[in-house]
Design brief:
2 domains; Rossmann fold; 14 strands; six-stranded parallel beta sheet; single chain; alpha/beta; eight-stranded mixed beta sheet; metal-binding
Length: 451
């Protein structure tokens, strides 16, 4: 094993990024891949562009995966063997954290001490690994939760499974141990304090960004031609994993309500659902299609698999409204991507969506879960689409991955400086302790000295 070394306080040269349960190479929108994957990819690439090398450690889920993949110049993805390659659910991964941690420590041990300058863990499973790596390497642990069990459990969809107690305990431990906690929004920062007793001094609010070069406004007619969508269609778009938490069923119910209120809309209305079953949604993978049939709108709903970013941008441009009806979101990157393409958003007024969408300017936030309220909000956006489209572009323009990475580098550097300061105080204290011991041997005034 590598020897412990004195902490550094300068900007990092190399970051160990931990993403245990999902790989940045996975396609977002299916399985466990979502906004967190996008976050890791985009921040890692931009860190590398600044000369900060990034090693991303993730669990191997196939024997066909190479041990090491260069995702982009300066970013290396390391596939760690920990447990069976396939058939292992996220809830079973805690039993494999010891194997995963051992592999991470062995990789560092192959280099000179001080190979990594900081550990950045994503999600609580990674935080558990990062906790041990931080102590072993004497480097700061930066943690981004992405979702919090206590918050999710407080806003469960009907019939959805609550997050287990083991996860709650694991999150509490990581929150206590991390040198910096990265919160996506001020709301999430408050949740960390209120639900997890986090130290506010160690929390930094760092909003995620959007790729403003990829997700851009474009020719809506051209986008519709490319996707085979009629020019006069009214297109409602959902993008995300198909699971109760994301609530795509609410969009279908809202669309059915719109048709009930205006039957003449049937010839033009289309609902596009992009994503794949995930989480508890895997237990009934055709439930959404069955709901569409029950509501009498099966002919209006187009189900599409997850799309690569370039194609996804076309879908955003082709849509009239993007709908994000989640029960909870730590941020909601889909909403930001849609707005960057000039598409206004109707979203649930929950969690990070209150930051990702500016109510009345870039879209509409909806309180509650009533499909009638969503139908009303969608109609309101359609009536003001051009104005809200301009507001959406302006709002999204305030978020960029460069800005996110600026804050992350500052967090890394400040945490390292704090650790170096603590180390110097520890050394100074150790030097003083022997002097105090010698002073204690001197006789007190008036004391008898043995001869």
């Amino acid at each position: 094993m590598a020897a412990r070394r004195r902490p550094r306080s300068a900007a990092p040269r190399r970051v160990a990024t931990l993403s245990v349960h999902t790989s940045p190479l996975d396609q977002p929108g299916a399985g466990d891949a979502g906004g967190m994957n996008v976050y890791v990819v985009e921040t890692s690439r931009r860190l590398a562009a600044r000369g900060i090398e990034v090693d991303v450690f993730t669990r191997a889920t196939s024997s066909d995966l190479p041990p090491v993949v260069e995702m982009s110049p300066g970013v290396t993805v390391r596939h760690v063997s920990a447990g069976p390659f396939e058939g292992l659910g996220k809830e079973e991964l805690p039993a494999q954290l010891c194997a995963f941690t051992a592999a991470v420590l062995r990789e560092e041990a192959q280099h000179e001490p001080g190979h990594f300058d900081v550990v950045h863990s994503h999600y609580w499973l990674s935080g558990q690994v990062g906790w041990l790596a931080r102590d072993r390497w004497s480097v700061p642990l930066i943690h981004t939760a992405h979702t919090l069990a206590k918050v999710k459990n407080a806003a469960l969809a009907a019939g959805d499974r609550p997050e287990p107690r083991a996860r709650v305990i694991g999150e509490e431990q990581v929150v206590t141990e991390a040198d910096r906690l990265i919160a996506n929004t001020a709301d999430e920062a408050r949740e960390l304090v209120d639900h997890y007793a986090a130290d506010p001094r160690r929390i930094l609010v760092v909003p995620p960004g959007v790729d403003l070069d990829r997700f851009t406004p474009g020719d809506r007619r051209a986008a519709r031609r490319a996707l085979g969508v009629d020019e006069d269609a009214v297109v409602l778009l959902f993008v995300g994993r198909i699971q109760p938490l994301k609530a795509p069923d609410l969009l279908l119910e809202a669309a059915a309500r719109m048709l009930a209120d205006d039957p003449g809309l049937r010839d033009r209305l289309q609902v596009h659902v992009i994503g794949a079953p995930s989480g508890s949604g895997l237990e009934a993978p055709r439930q959404l299609e069955q709901l569409a049939a029950t509501l009498g709108i099966a002919d209006l709903v187009r189900f599409l698999p997850p799309q690569h970013a370039e194609r996804l941008a076309e879908h955003y441009r082709a849509a009239d409204v993007a709908v994000v009806p989640s029960h909870n979101e730590s941020f909601g990157l889909v909403a930001l991507e849609a707005q960057a393409c000039g598409t206004p958003v109707v979203a649930a007024s929950v969690g990070g969506l209150r930051t990702a969408v500016r109510d009345g300017v870039s879209g509409v936030l909806v309180e509650g879960r009533d499909p009638a309220d969503y139908a009303t909000a969608i109609r309101a956006v359609l009536a003001r689409r051009e104005l809200l489209s301009a507001g959406a572009r302006r709002h999204a323009g305030g978020f960029s991955w460069e800005r996110t990475v600026d804050s992350l580098v500052a967090a890394y550097t400040a945490a390292a400086a704090d650790m170096a300061t603590a180390h110097r105080r520890e050394v100074a204290g150790a030097l003083l302790r022997p002097a105090r011991s010698l002073a204690a041997l001197r006789p007190l005034p008036g004391a008898q000295v043995a001869r």
